[in-house]
Structure formats: structure tokens, C-alpha cells
Amino acid sequence: MFKARRGRDKQAGGTAVLVADAPADSATLDSVTPADTVTPADSATLDAVTPAVAPADAVTSAGAPAYAVTSAVAPADAVTPDAPAYAVTLDSVTKTYQTGTTRVQALDGVSLGLRRGSFTAVMGPSGSGKSTFLHCAAGLDQPTSGTVWLGDTELTRLDEKQLTVQRRTRIGFVFQAYNLIPSLSVRDNLTLPLRFSGVPVDEAWLAQVVREVGLTDRLTHRPSELSGGQQQRVAIARALITRPEAVFADEPTGALDSRTGKQVLQLMRSLVDSLGQTILMVTHDPIAASWADRVVFLADGRLAGELTEPTADTVAAHLTHLGEW
């Protein structure tokens, strides 16, 4: 079952930093044949960085982003090309939508890094850019300018076919809608991404994932035979089956009651603590956000603050300051 580690009684407070926003569509499983991928050199080393060059030129000849350190002392855990400390890095990312004569700036110069093995929640008022942020970070949408890195691979240099390969093999997705195939068993739903990629099932890993999400006795069931919470656990397990470098969750508890939602959040917390999984979650719920290691706030497409070791109260207070509540 889960290692339910809600953990710490977090103290009120937290430091504010600048944060940003994202668009809002959902994704289903990709079904395109693999293609060659591009693998540039190293990636960024800071949680919040400013580019040393203009966003459009934010790639060096070696293929890695160039950064100016925003603190007086360089971080001790400097990244190497072989082992980037950040699972996902966004550098000066902007996203603009044009509808007729109307121009909407969804993201405005967002720079952020997600450390490996961390749980980050993204919050902000409606229209702040949360969904757009998630979609650009996950390779579901290309930014207008700036760069996005998955480990040491620059996603913004890939075409759609190459992005499909990255999403299928290195990224996991969990959405408010479970997106399960009704006619397939739990096992077949879990292993569907592997079948699309032509990868054999690692039975030992499948057993571990199923055990982690508490579905060992449900593998032969159909989705209609499961509760909402169980279906979301299947969706989470499916996101983990390819051993992704990062899991992106868009309102994963939005369709669940509070008790079931808490169980799903316990599971996500456990996956970070026990498996070292990197998770980015977009949510409107301060209680859900309090399960994360860090909460990043967006307003008008820009980073608008950050809390570490958040509590529901400190998150709600920060949202009040942003005019959300």
C-alpha cells in the first residue's frame, strides 16, 4: 500500500520569490512511432535563474543554457552533463496567443528549475498561466520564446514527432479525467504506454508500481469496477510505468471527494519520498498544495512568489495576497 507520509507539521511562513503561469488542455496517450531525439549538453543549476543572453539566444555552442547566477555564491551541487540536478528547467519562457486582433500573454519570461526527487505545486488565480506553464514544461506546447529542458535534452529544439517520443518515454501525465480505456483491464491500461512504444513489460517494475499504488488485487478489473480514487491510482501507476524523469499532474484530485483526494495526495507524496519521483502538480486547493515540498505562484503569466514547507494556511494567505480568495 502507500507509505503515507504526510509528514511534517509545517510551520507558518515561507519566503516569497518570483513565479509564473500556464495553459489548460489535457492530453491523451500519444501514438506516433519513435523518432531520433536531440540531446544537447548540460542543463541549468538554479531554481530561479536569469539568462546571461537574450531568450532567443539562450543556447550556447555546447547546446546548454547560459545562466547568470542570481545569488552571490554559486550552488555547491553544480550540475554535470551526465547527471543534471534538475529534471525540468525553463529559461525565460514566454507564450503568446493571438486570436484575431487580440493578443494574450499567457507566460512572460518565466525561469524555473524542478529538482530531481522534488514535489512542486503550482498555484495562481484563474488565467494566471498555470496550465500553459505545465504544458510548456511537459512538451505539450512550444513556447513563443525561451527554452525548456528535460534533463539534458532541450525540448524546444525538437519537432512534434521527436516530442512525442520524449512524452511517451520520459514524461508521465496525470489529469483530472482518468483517461482509462473502459474495455481494458487495469493491467492492460497500465502497460498501454509500453505497448505503444514497443517496449516489453518489466514485470518486476510493474509489480512494484502496482504495490506502491495499492492495486495488486485489481489487475484483472475493468475501470467501471473501480471507485474514482482507484481509477486515479491506475492513472498514476500508468504515468510511472515508463520510469519517467518527471510526472506532471493537472488538478489530480479535482474530481475526487476530500477523503479520496487525501489518499491520492498521500500516494503522490510517498512516490516522491520512496522512489525519488519528480512531480509537478497544478492545483487550486491549498490543502493539496500543502503536500508539496514547494509551492510556486503565478500571476499574469509571471512568477509571483514561492513557499517552501508550505501549510494550507500559509498557501491560502499567499493566495489572498494575489487576490485569489
TrEMBL record:
One Gene Ontology CC term in the entry: plasma membrane
Gene Ontology MF, one: transmembrane transporter activity
SMART domains assigned to the protein according to its UniProt record, in alphabetical order: AAA
Keywords for the protein's UniProt record, in alphabetical order: ATP-binding, Nucleotide-binding, Transport
Residues in coiled coil: none
Domain ABC transporter: 88-325
InterPro entries found in the cross-reference section: AAA+_ATPase, ABC_transporter-like_ATP-bd, ABC_transporter-like_CS, ABC_transpr_LolD-like, MacB-like_ATP-bd, P-loop_NTPase
Keyword Methyltransferase: no
Pfam families the UniProt entry points to: ABC_tran
Taxonomic superkingdom: Bacteria
PANTHER family attached to this UniProt entry: ABC TRANSPORTER RELATED (PTHR24220:SF685), IMPORT ATP-BINDING PROTEIN (PTHR24220)
Name of the protein in its database record: Putative ABC transport system ATP-binding protein
